[in-house]
Amino acid sequence: MDYFWELFFSGLTRGSIYALIALGYTMVYGIIELINFAHGEVYMIGAFVGMVVAGVLTSFGFPAMSIMVLASMAAVVYAAAYGYTLEKIAYRPLRNAPRLSPLISAIGMSIFLQNYVMLSQTSDFLSFPKLTPEFVFLEKYSSVIGSSDFLIIVVAAVVMIALSLFIKFTRMGKAMRATAQNRKMAMLVGVNVDQVISATFIIGSSLAAVGGVLIGSHIGQINFFIGFIAGIKAFTAAVLGGIGSIPGAVLGGLILGWTESFCTGYVSSDYEDVFAFALLVIILIFRPSGLLGKAPVQKV
Amino acid sequence: MKRSLLVLSFTLMLTVGLVAFGGTKKAEASAKTILLGVAGAHSGDLASYGLPSLEAAKLVVKAVNDAGGVNGAQVVISSQDDQCKPEFATNAAFKLVSDEATVVLGHICSGATKAALPIYKESNIVCMSPSATNPPLTQSGDYPNFFRTIASDDAQAALATNFAIDTLGLKKIAVIHDKGDYGKGFAEFAKKYITKSDKAEVVLFEGVTPGAVDYSAVVQKIKASGADGVVFGGYHPEASKIVSQIRKKKLTIPFISDDGVKAQKFIDVAGKAAEGVYATGPRDITGNPMYKVALGQYKATHDDEPGAFFFEAYSATQALLKAIEVAGSTDYDKIVEALRTHEVETPVGKIKFDSKGDAIGVGFSMYQVKDGAYQEVK
Description:
The complex is a heterodimer of chains A (300) and B (378). Chain A is mainly alpha-helical and 300 residues long. Chain A contains 11 helices and 2 strands. Chain B has 378 residues and is of the alpha/beta class.
């Protein structure tokens, strides 16, 4: 039974990261119906900023926990700036263009950011400092769940709850929901749509940056390419849960994480991706709009 | 007026055409040079395996050219980047073939080499890799134009499994690989040798996905399998992730890997988790006289240590150029003949090549990470 729970938590850790990144995809899609393919690169940039800040703070002798917090904050600020700028230069000018144009622009930005980081940093793998304090939480279960897995799960859960409260209760949250429902109507009733879209990018990018710092500290290495694979997986999670739906992104991330983890554990890691994407195909056959997605209403 | 413009533009077009024509003529006339293609990963995440070879080739070529060239002809390098990707490797090969390269040093990764070899074979170009260790490249007999200055994976896997079974006394071994040509090849040979030995068994044989977010599920599987040792085939980025997660799970079983992991970068990234890791790598060559010469040339212009496969590439370049010199021409058959019959003094030792293309006299040793550096296990 221990084996089952080990796999369960391993999947939960992985799924939490997918969910954190998937939220960015799903929020942006919900508001402007754009798949922001450069989102994975924002996650990667978050991880790089986290690494640089953590390295500097470590050399000044800060305690581990404060480094974690400060590095995450720096990563969030940077990634938010990237997300905001990205929207401003790559998507806003194309907002009324045919739907393919911003998509191509997104893929272009993704390739640009990857190469930008590769050239300005290095193409090698870099070691990411271990920021999670080592603690044994219930001796008996220490093999089932480690301290950094625990931290990832808790942080991801807190961030996601905070996000749903934000969307439910704040003015900006209401404006976001209104814009997602109908952009033109929202504009007519006085919602500043540009501001809402910028806020969406900023929030989505911040969540991805948190994910980047957490996973960097968890596995101990990053390079310029990590955003691509994580981005693909998170995008899959968003589609699985129903793109545009916030609980859907979380559910999709977790299901994807568990599928991969259990398949590795009980079948073979050779087929990890095969099972993950087979699941996506099966779900899309039976629920084309994803698990929690709403079928688009036909406008008459 | 219009007509004169037309005449003028025609004249201009003709002049440009003539200039271009004259240009190509000139290049052909001075073609008494030897073009050495250097193909490999010069960018991308595996560039640290490819760039040292380019550096080695440059040093050998400079030394040869300073001494008057090969049979009086100067050697020119044409560097082609393949990022260790088969699809780029074929592009690089086509480029070198169309530039009429005399011989090619490369490619670096086995997968890329495999993709490029048929193209060189068709055009009768000798290709020598300092690092592609996939056994069928030589053993299949499909590529008579291929040579290498590194021992093949089966030699490496045999060493790793003998070490695991006889020296460490392991009984249950988990074999993990990265699904790539190189890593999976190594792992499959390891599995074959373990099963054949009858002294140990393979309790787990699995591939991981390179670049996956984490490998904890596979690590749990290793743990659940009751393995008392792990053999990994692949490169250092995955190895450092897996070994870190194994140590995080408080598993202290030995981790044995290949020369894709025997890189300083592995120790830098894995940090404390790297301590005690075993990896096979080319035999200690620091006693060879040419080794000191090559190192001295490198140190004269660089502050750091030469990178992965530098000496193998240095040796390969020497062997190639020497073969052309001995052959006395750039004819394919004569170069191949010279490579097989004529011994060359290189940093990896005095070598010539057997009928399949493997260098006689090179081999592997076992290394272990101690105090942040690989040390040969005696």
